[in-house]
């Protein structure tokens, strides 16, 4: 239910204090605890988990699938960026989680003499919003090269809670 509540409660998320994490600050990366197949940092920010044998958590695997379904056309394969849009694997590390959510939900325009960048809003797209944390943790894993390019191999099973949350979100 946590993922469902996070994606539907975006307005509430935007009111939370903003924190900036340096790329070398692993508190934005390391899993401190898990809940129903989801992993979180000490600050309750979604993150990935990879076991010693290379098995990835379900959300990271799902994020790979969702990213390649909705995001890679502009942002390039595996979050590497393109001539059209920036590398999201970097954004997931460098941006605050709530800023990342805000940009995906509301879009962003930067039009000036130096750049012409338009990110459309995906707040009404259930194929993005119901899997926003999945996409985010996949990109974080790519950003620190914890997950290599290409389709991830071994993955954890999807938990019943994640399945229920997906069904509730998608209707």
UniProtKB/TrEMBL annotation:
Residues 62-137 form the Cytochrome c domain. It comes from the Bacteria. One of its GO terms (molecular function) is metal ion binding. Keywords: Heme, Iron, Metal-binding, Signal. It holds the Pfam family Cytochrome_CBB3. InterPro entries: C-typ_cyt_methanol_metab-rel (IPR022411), Cyt_c-like_dom (IPR009056), Cyt_c-like_dom_sf (IPR036909). This is Methanol metabolism-related c-type cytochrome. It comes from Yoonia maritima. Residues 1-22 form the signal peptide.
